[in-house]
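[Meeting: bench + compute handoff]

Bench side (C.D.) handed over the final construct sequence. Compute side (W.E.) agreed to return the predicted structure before the next meeting so the bench team could plan truncations. Sequence as handed over:
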Amino acid sequence: MAAKQSPELSPLELEVMNVIWELGECTSADVINDFTKKRKLANTTIRTVLANIRKKGYLQVVPSVEPRVRFRPRVSKRTVARRNVRQLLRNMFGDSPREAIEFLLEEEDIDRAELDEIRRLLDEHSTGGETE
C-alpha cells in the first residue's frame, strides 16, 4: 500500500512509528520497551496502537521462526514527513515555504551553528548541489 493511500497517522501513532523507524525490524516488546523509556503508557495501549498502524498499512510482518511476530516499517519516515510537511504548508502557510521558514525563524531559538548549516543547505540548493 502506498503512503498516499495509507490513512494518516494520529499523533500517538506517529510517536510509536518514530520508535519503529529507529528500531527497524522489531517485535511489539521491543517497541514497548523503547517507547516507555520516553513516555509512560500501558503495554496494552501500545499494542493497540501497533495493531492500528498495521491495519493502516504502515507495517509489514517479517517471516520468522520465532514465536513472536516481527515487523518492519512498510513506509519510510521520509515519505510520511513529506506528506505531513506538504499538508502543513498547504493548511497553515498557504503553500508558501517562505512563510513557513519565516515563522520558524521568528518562533524558534535557532543557534548559530544551525543557522550556518541552513545557509549551507540553501547555498547548495541554489547551485543545484546534492544535500543528502
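W.E. noted at the follow-up: The longest helix spans residues 77-93. C.D. will use this when planning the next construct.
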